[in-house]
Amino acid sequence: MEKTAEIETILAPALAAMGFDVVRVLMTGSRQNPTLQVMVERADGANLSLDDCTEVSRTISALLDVEDPIAGRYLLEVSSPGIDRPLVRARDFERFTGHEARVETSEPVDGRRRFRGRLLGLDGDYVRLDTPEGEAAVPLAAIVRAKLVLTDELIAAGGR
Predict the structure, then answer these.
(1) Predicted TM-score (pTM) of this structure
(2) Where are the domains of the chain?
């Protein structure tokens, strides 16, 4: 199991019980100075506060101290996904239907690897996008990176 998936499996149940959803777990930095980034959001849809981040950070630290999935020292960063958030889970592409997104794939889809357009939701295992070149259907399994584009509409919607 990939390390970040293992860590998410350790964290998600406890954080869900506290009223938080894990958006993304990411290891960055070098082997000598790794950073564990954990993005969370409140399950009730309210904005994440500094107190929430503190509470989540303490819980994560305690869980990882017990399970010890990371060898050696690391820096823990807990944050909200922000308004121009990454789209990680299939449900993210449904939740943000109507908003503009950037999507990058691991392999070419219809001759390209980068897409930008309005999210039209999911069609089975495909993310549908309305791009300037026309509608695109991008396989979920091929997406390596996706995020919302900061637009006036997204700001007006409050990132929801």
Answers:
(1) 0.84
(2) 3-79, 90-157
